[in-house]
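As a warm-up, study this chain.
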Amino acid sequence: MPISGAYTDEAKRLRAEIKKKFKTQVALCQAIGAKDASYITAYVTGKNRIGNILREKLEAVGIDVNYIIYGKKGGPELPAPPPDPALTLILTDCTQKIQQLQNQALDMNQQLLELNKLLDTLKKRVGQ
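Now compare it with the structure written out below.
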C-alpha cells in the first residue's frame, strides 16, 4: 500500500516499528485483537493519525507511540505525583459504579436480545 495521506512520516515510522517488532501487519493486528489488517490500513497509509484507543492497544504490545507520532524515541517520563488518599477513594468508587453500570447495561442488552427472539417467534407463529 502506498503512503499518501497527511501523516506520511507517522505512517513510515509505524510501518518500521511493526516490521521490527511483529514482522507483519497481520501479526500486529492479531496481537492487539483486531479482526484483520484492515484495522490499521488508514494508519499505515498516512490517512489517519493514531487516536487514544489504538494508542492504548499499541502501547500494550510494546510499540512506542510517542516515537511514531512525534519522531522522538523514549521521551522523558514525568514522575508520578504522590497519591492523594481522598482522590484514590473517589476514583475507586467511580470505577466500581462504572463497572456496575456496565454490567447492568450488558444484562439489559441480553434481556433485549431474548425479547427480540420471543418477538420473532411470535411473528412466525402469527404469520403461519
